């Protein structure tokens, strides 16, 4: 029986960490960031802001909005307004996104148990090398303060 030395254990650990890193990497995702909404409720006037660094590779990208919602959210859906400006052109677009969070029986459609994760496709983008994006998200609900929204994220992936 071979007893592993500390040097062998270190090499095995390094190999496992390297393999895990290679498997876990998503080379298609160029931006993925969450902003935390207030625990007391997301105020209608609180704009969540995201700043995407200059894109390294030109091409087609898919943009998604992601939500983390606790089970105290009082509605079946939430409407978001997403405004974004692509630089250096300064082209601004504004889009309303209806995010359905419950099925017809009132059960959450996201993944999780008491804390649910959702992803909603927003739009496809054609970006040039060096383009950067500023994204602003607000909720567009009649209620001023929206409880139950923990985090709002933006994910941009190469198509």
Verbal overview:
- The chain has 159 residues and is mostly beta strands.
- Helices cover 12% and strands 52% of the residues.
- Strand 7 and strand 8 form a beta hairpin.
- The longest helix has 19 residues, at 6-24.
- It has one helix at 6-24; strands spanning 29-36, 42-43, 48-52, 59-70, 77-87, 91-100, 111-112, 115-127, 132-139, 145-146, 149-158.
- The mean pLDDT is 87.
- The chain has 1 helix and 11 strands, in the order H-E-E-E-E-E-E-E-E-E-E-E.
- The strands form 3 sheets. The chain has a 5-stranded antiparallel beta sheet, with no helix packed on it. A 4-stranded antiparallel beta sheet has the order 3-9-5-6, with no helix packed on it. A two-stranded antiparallel ribbon has the order 2-10.
Biggest sheet strand order reads: 1-11-4-8-7
Count helical runs. Answer: 1
What is the rounded distance between the termini?
Answer: 50 Å
Strand/helix succession: HEEEEEEEEEEE
Morphology call: globular
Rounded Rg: 20 Å
Q: Would you count the extended β strands for me?
A: 11
Helix content: 10-25%
Q: Mind summarizing the main beta sheet?
A: 5 strands, antiparallel
Computed structural class: mainly beta
Question: Which regions have little confidence, pLDDT < 50, spanning 5+ residues?
Answer: none
**For the residues shown, what is the average pLDDT?**
87
Which percent range describes the beta-strand content?
over 45%
Descriptive key words:
single chain, 159 residues, mainly beta, five-stranded antiparallel sheet, four-stranded antiparallel sheet
